[in-house]
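Weekly sync, protein design subgroup
Attendees: M.S., D.O., the rotation student, P.L. (late)

Item 1: inverse folding check
M.S. brought a backbone from last month's batch and wanted to see whether the design step gives back something sensible before we order anything. D.O. pointed out we never logged the input encoding, so this time it goes straight into the notes. C-alpha cells as presented (566 positions):
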C-alpha cells in the first residue's frame, strides 16, 4: 500500500514522459472539449490533460443561425498549442470548423454533390458564403439565372450550392447558386416536357419578345420559342405587330428536341394553310390586284391575300426602266395590278409580273417605226460596242461600231461622238421579245457599194486616186460617195518598171478591173495590171498573134485604131 501511496521517482518520470507524449499528439488536431465557464466574451473549454483554453464567443456563432453556448456543452476545437506562457491551451473553434468543413467539402466536390451554405457578406465581384466553417466565394454571375438587382432576400439563409473549384493550399473555394437553379429547372422542365406531345395545342403567356420571335411560357419555368415566321401565314416584319408581352395566346407544339428539350411553337398552324390549292386559285396569265409588302434589291413582294405573297422580280417590273432599284418603281403598301407568271405550290412560290399589265412599248414602237425609218435622239452612253441613243419613253437603241461608217473602222468613227450629242439614225431591226432596237448611222448615206451600180468580178471601173502610199494607191470608185479600195503596188501595172506608186498623183483617174467582191465586208479588190493583161489578151485574139510575125505593138496599134474608128 505504501508503494502505491508513495510512488517512486521512476514512476514520476514515467508519468511525466507519457504526459509529454500525449501533449504532442494533441497539438494541431481537433479534439472534443467541455465548456467549463463563460467569462464576458470568452468561453473556457477543458480539452483534457487537465488543460483549459479560451475561445472567443463569436467563434461559436454561425451565419444564419442563432447559437447560444452554455456551461457543460461539448464542443470541438482545434488545439494549436497545449500550453502557452500562461499555462493555458491555445485553441480555436473556427479552425476546428474549417478543418472539418474542408474534409467534408472535398468529399462533396469529388462526388459532385450539393453543399449547404449561407451567403453572409457582399464583396467585390460577388459574395462570401459560409460552408459550415469554410468561407467560399460566390461570383455575382453565379447568384441566379437572371441578373439580381437586390440580393438581400438571399442572404443569411441556408441554401444549396454547387462547388465549382477548390484549392486547399490557397484556401480558395468558388461556388455557384445558379448551377443549382439550372439543374432544378432542367429537371422540372424534363418532367413537364414528358407530358407534352408534338401537335398539342396549349395556352401560354408571352414572356419575352425579340426580333426573331417570342418566348411563351407553357408552364412555370417551361417556355417555348414562337418564331416570327410561325406567327402568321402573312408577312410579319416584327413580332410586336402580332403579340405583346403578357398576352395569353393559343399555340401549337411543332417540335420537341428530345435531347435539349427545346420546344418550337406555332400560331399560324392553328389556321388553314392558304397555300393549299393555290395553283388552281391563281392560274398562269391571270391578273390580280395586290399590296406591296416588302421591297428588296431584287424585286418587290406583293400580297395577293392573307398568307399568299408573290415576287415581282426587278426584270418584270418595267418594260423600259432598266438598272433602277425597285423602290423607284413601286412603294410599300401601294396597290398594284400583277400577272401570274409561275406557281410552285411545293416551294410556296408565285412569280408575278408588273409590266405585263401595261402595254408593251417595244411592240408599239415596232408598229409605229418600221425598219428603215429614221429617228433622232441623244447619245445616252458610249461603250466598247457602240452608241446607245435615247429614242422615246426611256427606250434606247444601239448603233453598233460596224454601223457607224462605211469606210472607216468603228474604233476610228466612234471618236467623233460624245455623250449628249443629238444624232439621227436609221432603224435596222426591232425585237420586242428581247427589248432591243438596232440602229445604224452609216445607213443614212446609203450603201456606197450600191451607189456605183453593177459591181461584179471582172467588170472594169474608173477610179480616182485619193492617196499615195509606199505599198500602193488608195482609190475611190464611182465618185464622192462610192466605195474605196486599195490597189497594191504589184497590181499597178503589167510592166514592172511602171509598178511605182509615185507615178500617180492624187486626183488622177485610172481604170482598173474588179478581181474580187466581198459584199459582207464591203470590200473591192482592184487591179490595173489585170485590166491591162485582159486587154492584151483580147487584142491578140482579134488582131493576130506574135507567131504570125506581127509585134505586140503592131497588134495593140491595130486594136486602138479600130477602137478609134468605132
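Designed sequence read out in the meeting:
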Amino acid at each position: 500500500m505504501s508503494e502505491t501511496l508513495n510512488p517512486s521517482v521512476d514512476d514520476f518520470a514515467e508519468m511525466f514522459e507519457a504526459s509529454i507524449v500525449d501533449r504532442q499528439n494533441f497539438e494541431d488536431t481537433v479534439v472534443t472539449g467541455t465548456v467549463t465557464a463563460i467569462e464576458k466574451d470568452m468561453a473556457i473549454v477543458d480539452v483534457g490533460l487537465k488543460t483549459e483554453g479560451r475561445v472567443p464567443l463569436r467563434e461559436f456563432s454561425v451565419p444564419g443561425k442563432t447559437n447560444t453556448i452554455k456551461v457543460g456543452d461539448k464542443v470541438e476545437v482545434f488545439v494549436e498549442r497545449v500550453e502557452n506562457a500562461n499555462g493555458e491551451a491555445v485553441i480555436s473553434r473556427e479552425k476546428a470548423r474549417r478543418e472539418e468543413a474542408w474534409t467534408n467539402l472535398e468529399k462533396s466536390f469529388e462526388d459532385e454533390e450539393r453543399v449547404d451554405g449561407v451567403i453572409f457578406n457582399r464583396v467585390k465581384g460577388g459574395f462570401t458564403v459560409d460552408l459550415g466553417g469554410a468561407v467560399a466565394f460566390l461570383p455575382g454571375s453565379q447568384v441566379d439565372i437572371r441578373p439580381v438587382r437586390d440580393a438581400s432576400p438571399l442572404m443569411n439563409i441556408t441554401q444549396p450550392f454547387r462547388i465549382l473549384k477548390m484549392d486547399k493550399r490557397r484556401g480558395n473555394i468558388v461556388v455557384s447558386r445558379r448551377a443549382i437553379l439550372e439543374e432544378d429547372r432542367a429537371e422540372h422542365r424534363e418532367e413537364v416536357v414528358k407530358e407534352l406531345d408534338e401537335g398539342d395545342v396549349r395556352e401560354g403567356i408571352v414572356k419575352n419578345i425579340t426580333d426573331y420571335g417570342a418566348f411563351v411560357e407553357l408552364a412555370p419555368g417551361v417556355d417555348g420559342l414562337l418564331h416570327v415566321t410561325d406567327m402568321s401565314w402573312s408577312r410579319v416584319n416584327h413580332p410586336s405587330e402580332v403579340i405583346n408581352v403578357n398576352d395569353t395566346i393559343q399555340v401549337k407544339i411543332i417540335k420537341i428536341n428530345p435531347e435539349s428539350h427545346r420546344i418550337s411553337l406555332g400560331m399560324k398552324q392553328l389556321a388553314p394553310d392558304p397555300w393549299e390549292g393555290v395553283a388552281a386559285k391563281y392560274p398562269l396569265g391571270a391578273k390580280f390586284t395586290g399590296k406591296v409588302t416588302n421591297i428588296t434589291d431584287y424585286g418587290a413582294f406583293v400580297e395577293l391575300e392573307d398568307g399568299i405573297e408573290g415576287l415581282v422580280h426587278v426584270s418584270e417590273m418595267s418594260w423600259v426602266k432598266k438598272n433602277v432599284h425597285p423602290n423607284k418603281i413601286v412603294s410599300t403598301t401601294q396597290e398594284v395590278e400583277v400577272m401570274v407568271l409561275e406557281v410552285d405550290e411545293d416551294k410556296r412560290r408565285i412569280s408575278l409580273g408588273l409590266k405585263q399589265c401595261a402595254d408593251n412599248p417595244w411592240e408599239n414602237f415596232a408598229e409605229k417605226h418600221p425598219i428603215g425609218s429614221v429617228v433622232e435622239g441623244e447619245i445616252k452612253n458610249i461603250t466598247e460596242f457602240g452608241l446607245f441613243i435615247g429614242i422615246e419613253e426611256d427606250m434606247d437603241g444601239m448603233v453598233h461600231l460596224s454601223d457607224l461608217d462605211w469606210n472607216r473602222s468603228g474604233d476610228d468613227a466612234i471618236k467623233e461622238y460624245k455623250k449628249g450629242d443629238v444624232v439621227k439614225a436609221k432603224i435596222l431591226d426591232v425585237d420586242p421579245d428581247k427589248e432591243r432596237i438596232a440602229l445604224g448611222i452609216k445607213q443614212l448615206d446609203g450603201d456606197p457599194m450600191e451607189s456605183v451600180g453593177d459591181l461584179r468580178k471582172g467588170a472594169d471601173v474608173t477610179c480616182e486616186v485619193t492617196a499615195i502610199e509606199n505599198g500602193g494607191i488608195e482609190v475611190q470608185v464611182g465618185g464622192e460617195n462610192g466605195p474605196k479600195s486599195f490597189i497594191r503596188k504589184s497590181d499597178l501595172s503589167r510592166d514592172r518598171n511602171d509598178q511605182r506608186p509615185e507615178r500617180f498623183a492624187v486626183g488622177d483617174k485610172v481604170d482598173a478591173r474588179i478581181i474580187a467582191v466581198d459584199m459582207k465586208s464591203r470590200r473591192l479588190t482592184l487591179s490595173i495590171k489585170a485590166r491591162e493583161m485582159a486587154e492584151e489578151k483580147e487584142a491578140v485574139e482579134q488582131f493576130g498573134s506574135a507567131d504570125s510575125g506581127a509585134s505586140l505593138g503592131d497588134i495593140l496599134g491595130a486594136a486602138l485604131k479600130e477602137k478609134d474608128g468605132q
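Discussion: Confidence is low (pLDDT under 50) at residues 1-5, 13-21. The radius of gyration is 55 Å.
Action: P.L. to compare against the previous round before Friday.
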